[in-house]
Write a structure and sequence with these properties.
about 425 residues; alpha/beta; 6-stranded mixed β-sheet; two-stranded antiparallel sheet; DUF2851; DUF2851 family protein
Length: about 425
């Protein structure tokens, strides 16, 4: 049959997993071929697989493998003029007619791959599945050991990804770890919807300025609300009027420029998640820790971290969600779910990144241990995995599955996923 290949991922997959027909393999010039090791995928420039080992007519060859849809792609991609491809020992293709040569004119052996129709249809079923979890309903065939192994891999990949993001912030702060934590902590108080404005707020206030006032809740709130752009109106309430007076003095003294308050989002947010409430909670956290964010990285006990995040709002905000608009009095502390999210999405990635960049594995191990101690997140993605009887015991599991869902499942990258590999392999077998 004719196979409509939209990219070479499928060919890479069946080559790496050796899922093609292997009985009596021969090159196009009729030499007997044995695949000892298909090699490792190359994610950089150059041939597709490196460190491969094959035997051609009983002679052992070690080198690189190049994979193409059509044999003529070798010349179309100008590999015959590129010395980086001279160490290719086998050209693997799916179709076409012709020959393959190195830059010096030497001929490179060519293998035409063939595979079962069942494997191809299984691949199409995954690729064309409308549900973001393409292998839903087939996961029972995957052992708990295999799935646990892949979850661990996804968790490390997730932390590595966050470490890369934190490294960019570190670069922007000229390698100042305190300033870096300050910025990502502020960002975490936006809980997604207002993350960008909170990061802008942190960048608008030099950490040295914040530290000067970190023992005075009134001044810290004046500084944060003022810089956030919430103190530009004329107010009825005495509390806001006092904050505005304090902020005017601080702004002049330190030559600060406030943000525009239109950047903050309130629409479709629960009132307890309004940025005004989060700013007051953040102010109390700054005062509670005296602005010394190092306590988060040097503390070994997770319960102590949870206690540090046990903050509420100033008395005014107990009866307000918006300036000058009184509401029913409610105690607005930073709830358990919010504390967990800050630890999971900010403190733990920071710990991991700090340990990785300073080559101190104690912090990386602590990050992993804390994830195993925290309860898993509860959302639609996790519910979907649970419906497929996938175990989600702790935050490490939930983080791994969320990362897997967003970066593999929803992008239909089944051929890059060990679970997708296993589903296809079982079907092929």
């Amino acid at each position: 049959m004719t196979y409509n290949l939209t990219n070479e991922d499928f060919l890479h997959f069946i080559w790496k997993q050796k899922l093609f027909y292997q009985n009596n393999l021969k090159t196009t010039d009729n030499q007997h071929l044995e695949i000892i090791n298909p090699g490792e995928i190359n994610c950089d420039a150059g041939p597709d697989f490196f460190n491969a080992k094959i035997k051609i007519d009983g002679i052992l060859w070690a080198g690189n493998i190049e994979v193409h849809h059509d044999i003529n792609d070798w010349n179309l991609h100008n590999h015959h003029k590129d010395k980086a491809y001279d160490n290719v020992i086998l050209h693997v293709v799916a179709r076409g007619k012709g020959e393959t040569f190195r830059t010096n004119g030497e001929q490179i052996p060519v293998l035409f791959l063939s595979w079962s129709d069942e494997l191809w249809y299984s691949y199409l079923a995954l690729r064309d599945q409308r549900d973001w979890l393409a292998c839903s309903g087939k996961l029972a065939a995957i052992s708990s050991f295999e799935f646990s192994f892949w979850k661990e891999r996804m968790l490390i990949e997730r932390l590595e990804s966050r470490s890369t993001q934190i490294k960019e912030v570190l670069k922007a702060t000229t390698s100042n770890w305190d300033e870096t934590f300050y910025r990502i902590l502020f960002r975490s108080f936006g809980f997604g919807v207002n993350s960008e404005p909170f990061e802008l707020l942190a960048r608008s206030i030099p950490l040295t300025v914040l530290l000067k006032y970190s023992d005075n809740i009134k001044i810290v709130e004046a500084l944060l609300f003022g810089q956030a752009g919430f103190l530009n109106e004329t107010f009825i309430d005495e509390y806001l009027t006092d904050l505005k007076r304090e902020y005017h003095f601080i702004r002049q003294k330190h030559q600060l420029k406030s943000l525009e308050n239109h950047i903050w989002k309130f629409l479709r947010l629960r009132p307890s998640n309004f940025p005004t409430i989060r700013i007051s909670q953040l102010a109390h956290l700054i005062v509670k820790t005296k602005g010394l964010f190092g306590v988060f990285i040097n503390e070994e006990n997770l319960d102590t971290i949870l206690d540090l995040l046990n903050v509420d709002v100033s008395e005014y905000w107990e009866t307000h969600y918006l300036p000058d608009r009184k509401s029913k009095k409610i105690f607005k502390d930073l709830g358990a779910s919010s504390k967990n999210l800050i630890i999971i999405n900010t403190i733990i990635p920071y710990l991991f990144s700090y340990g990785k960049n300073t080559q101190n594995h104690v912090f990386e191990d602590r990050a992993m241990n804390w994830l195993n101690q925290l309860k898993p997140e509860q959302n639609a993605i996790i519910s979907k995995w649970k419906a497929n009887e996938i175990s989600v015991k702790n935050a490490g599991d939930s983080q791994a599955l969320i990362y897997l869902s967003n970066n593999y499942c929803k992008k239909k990258k089944c051929l890059h996923c060990n679970i997708g590999h296993k589903v296809l392999t079982i079907k092929a077998e």
